[in-house]
Amino acid sequence: MSNRPLSETSEWTFELIEKYHKEIARIAGAFGLDTYPVQLEIITAEQMMDAYASVGMPIVYSHWSFGKEFVTNEARYKKGQMGLAYEIVINSNPCIAYLMEENSMTMQALVIAHAAYGHNSFFKNNYLFTTWTSADSIIDYLLFAKNYIAECEERYGEKQVEEILDSCHVLKNFGVDRYKRPSRLSMQEEQAKQKAREEYLQSQVNELWRKIPTKEVLRNDKKDSQFPEEPQENILYFIEKNAPFLEPWQREIVRIVRKIAQYFYPQRQTQVMNEGWATFWHYTLLNQLYAEGLVTDGFMIEFLQSHTNVIYQPAFDSNYYSGINPYALGFAMMTDIRRICEDPTDEDRHFFPDIAGSDWNKTLHFAMQNFKDESFIGQYLSPKVIRDFKLFSILDDYKESEMAVTSIHNEGGYRYIRRVLSEQYNLGSNEPNIQVYDVDRKGNRTLILRHTQYHGMPLDKSIDEVLKHVVRLWGFGVRLETLGEDGSITNIYECK
Amino acid sequence: MVQIVDRRLNGKNKSAVNRQKFIHRFRSQIKKAVSDAINKRSVTDLDKGEKVSIPAQDTSEPFFHHGRGGYRERVHPGNKEFQQGDKITRPDENSGRGNQASNSGEGQDEFSFELTREEFLNFFFDDLELPYLVKTHLAVLNEANKVRAGHTSTGIPSNINVIRSLRNAIGRRMVLRAPHYDSLMEAEKQLEDLLKSHDETDTVVILLRKEIEHLRGRIAGIPFIDTFDLRFDNRIDRPKPITQAVMFCIMDISGSMGPEDKDIAKRFFMLLYLFLMKTYEKIQVIFISHHTEAQEVDEETFFYSRETGGTVVSSALNLMNTIIQDRFSNSEWNIYAAQASDGDNWDNDSKKCTQILSEKIMPYLQYFAYIEITEDRHQNLWQEYLSIKEQWNNFAMQRIEALTDIYPVFRKLFEKQTHVK
Q1: Binding-face residues of B in 77-136 toward A, CB within 8 A
Q2: Mean pLDDT of all residues in chain A?
């Protein structure tokens, strides 16, 4: 094959981007990547920092915390401590990927392959994303949220809005439904429904706090009926629906923060997979370009240089170490799945009897579609990857004076390490398990939260600060009870 | 089909609002940091922003998370010599890489970021002002505020005052129909009476009915609204009172001022100039530099010329006096002066200076600030000026020994004085 390279220099032009994109899209199609339509947006470094500050959302309501994010990045970027990540991609339909003006043609091609095809196909096909996010309407919803909050600022005062947002942000990780699929978002519906919802919600709240007893079923069978009947994990949702004194617009803001947190929830659960998948595909796609003679050696060298930077995993004792690099682990695992399929060893046949020797592309797609980090690692972390990374596990029990090495990358340790690492990516065990347990409806309306302790881990000292925000939203006192492993209350935090 | 959108021309400051919100929220902390920064640093360059640090605790956003303690098992990469069952001492509380890394990623106790030069100066000049700025003057300048001034009967459609216009219309309609209305009432009453004794077909009744019809027509014919009713909001120009102020910057560029002293003087005036330009919209600045002779110069020359020579301070004061007489003699000007010198002067000239100042200049002045730039003991000009300070309470003098003194001295000279105003 004697194709001529698409370009010889590192300069990019719009025509070149289109040409490269066309080739990458063709190859991606041939590999069976199923994607949303692509929208590439050329932006400047400053705009990239803006995008950073708004945690990758293309439109975001205004709040000081985004300003804080911005000044941090700005300072670090100017000092040269931080290069700008060259990719931000939005889980929307069409899928928006940003290309930075300063990048060379190689980097642009890399981003197109990585973001516009890798992440894009992940967004479209991973089960968490398809069930929990609505790519079609997220941009509209963000726009609705931004306008609504701006309107509230005008009508009720910036300070009032800021206070509510502050408190909601504190609880945003506790504003997601983990088990129930949220309803789809749409701006028009949102606006139409919003009015009706305001009235309805308010009337419901009044119902709950009504003092005159209704004639309905009086539940005498239970001594003291609990409210909510079942503990609720979505604290923000509970507050939105039941806090006695929130104004309708405040409820709507609680809802907005909750909805946006829900949108990001799958991303937090699929870091390794998502980055691994995108990295695997940019590597595969660009290598294919090279194999077809469409790019030069210089292109490849520049690409490989940044590729190896991205998948660099510093060792635990390095100064650069800050946990496992999701790009590195994800890429290694994806590549290894391909290897196991194409060229299995006896060990692989022993560990992965059903995928060894199967069609790698199908197997990889299946893995991408049906797992999240926790289960993906539990299923696919191979002994070879464990050996390559020289993984070892450390048990840190505060009752002991020393930490213990519980397993290393050897025959006896593979399964153990796989289990521990999988657990490490379980959001449920990383975040404290705190649920709404009861409300003292007959007394002083205290909201009772229950923290069910996991592995005896205590809550951080900042808990008092957090509770202040919960009190602000709830309007009355809040009590947090920590339940020890044995089911007895070991600790009580109160805030009024 | 791919869509490529060039967003580069879209505004780049999408975060500006959020940045402002951030700065606003931590205003008091930043202000403290700015003043700390100023006290600590030597003036290197005014045209730079400043990195400030505020306590990270204030900016942190709390959330529910685990603290240290309990039982946790984690996987790390890069094992070298560990074997299963090895014991390791727990790393130090602070140096340990907690799993819950701080979200700012940088220093744990301080939150650092850059203020732009503009923001920095804003914070720095925040509570400074020119003292005794009292003479306000209605200038001939065509600067004016639009203010509401009642209503007029002519105007453009967009200014129509609907309520007043309709009110007028109602009034007019009431007045115009009043006579007809009375007659109508009367006629209807008559008709009622007539009908008791007459038939519908009788001429009297028919005539009366016609009359009633006619009156009704007259009433209906009164126009609902007439140009006559229209009222328009009226706005007039009110000249804006502006304060006219002039600042004389007098700098000694004689040979006795070493390059460092000159540098300090220039920086001081640069700061003063920035402050004036930022804070006061309309202000004139007159630059006078002198050695044995004084010269009025432009900004460029003032800050960047390298002339030098002996010292006769009175020459500058004389020149200033002449300029005041020529251009700012009327009582409408707020006149300020700042003089910087090493205080080294011809002996008998210092006496002359005192004389010129107290007789000719001080009576016109709102405020005179003298800055002596020297590391040695006070010079003869200082001694002389002390007597003026006793006479005039709007005469201030300060001494700058080194670069680091510039900011504090500047602040002292132009601090907002609460008793004024």
Answers
A1: 77-80, 82-90, 97, 99-101, 104-106, 111-114
A2: 87
A102 touches chain B (CB under 8 A): no
**Least confident piece of the model among A240-244, A351-355, A438-442, A463-467:** A438-442
Whether residue A259 lies inside any domain: the answer is yes
Looking at residue A327, its amino acid is Y
Q: Across the A/B interface, how many CB contacts are shorter than 8 Å? A: 263
Flag whether A290 is in a domain. Answer: yes
Q: What is the structure's pLDDT at B363?
A: 85
Taking CB atoms and an 8 Å limit, are A394 and B76 in contact across chains? yes
Q: Which residues of chain B have pLDDT under 50?
A: 41-44, 95-107, 138-139, 420-421
Report the distance separating Cα B296 and Cα B287, nearest Å: 6
Same domain, A377 and A449: no
Closest chain B C-alpha to A310 CA, distance in angstroms: 16
Of A381, A289, A370, give the one whose Cα is nearest residue A335. A381
Q: For B15-49, write each residue's pLDDT tens digit.
A: 778 888 888 888 888 877 776 666 554 444 555 66
Q: Positive or negative, the Cα torsion across A274, A279, A280, A281?
A: positive
CATH of the domain at A463: 3.40.1350.10
Q: Say yes or no: A155 and A252 in one domain.
A: yes
Report yes or no: B12 at the A interface, CB cutoff 8 Å: yes
Q: Does A39 touch chain B (CB under 8 A)?
A: yes
Q: How far is A160 from chain B (nearest CA, A)?
A: 13
Q: Looking at the complex, does the CB of residue A463 fall below 8 Å from at least one CB of chain B? A: yes
Q: What is the pLDDT of residue B98?
A: 41
User: What does the pLDDT average to over A459-473?
Assistant: 90
Mean pLDDT value across residues A88-115: 89
CB contact under 8 A, A174 and B100: no
Neighbours of B405 (CB within 10 A): 19
The per-residue pLDDT for range A163-206, each reduced to its tens digit, is: 999 999 999 889 888 776 666 666 666 677 777 777 776 766 66
* ipTM confidence: 0.83
- DSSP structural state of residue A461: T
Rama region for A464: left / alpha / beta (φ>0; ψ in -120 to 50; rest):
alpha
Domain assignment of residue A455, yes or no: yes
The CATH number for B241-414, chosen from 3.40.50.410, 3.80.30.20, 3.90.1310.10, 2.130.10.10, is 3.40.50.410
B290: helix, coil or strand?
A: strand
Tokens in use for A335? 């590549």
DSSP readout, B70-103? SEEEEEES--SS--TT-EEEPPPTTTS--SS--T
Instruction: Please name the member of B62, B71, B88 whose beta carbon is closest to the beta carbon of A405.
Output: B88
> In the prediction, which pLDDT does B417 show?
66
The yes-or-no verdict on residue A300 having pLDDT over 90 is: yes
Question: Looking at the domain assignment, is residue A4 inside a domain?
Answer: no
If contacts are CB pairs under 8 Å, which of residues 340-359 in chain B contact chain A? none
In tens, the pLDDT along A124-136 reads 999 999 888 888 8
Nearest partner of B288 among B320, B255, B321, judged by Cα: B320
Q: Which domain holds residue A465?
A: 432-495
Phi, psi of A413 (to 5 degrees): -100, -15
**In a shared domain, residues A253 and A237:** yes
The number of distinct structural domains making up chain A is 4
10 Å Cβ neighbour count for B27?
12
Domain ranges of chain B: 13-59+109-124, 157-235, 241-414
Q: Which residue of B has its CA nearest to A46?
A: B12
The whole-number pLDDT of residue B92 equals 65
Interchain contact, A74 vs B69, CB within 8 Å: no
Cβ–Cβ gap A395/B51 under 8 Å = no
- List, as ranges, residues 67-96 from A with C-beta within 8 Å of B: 67-68, 70-72, 74-76, 78, 94
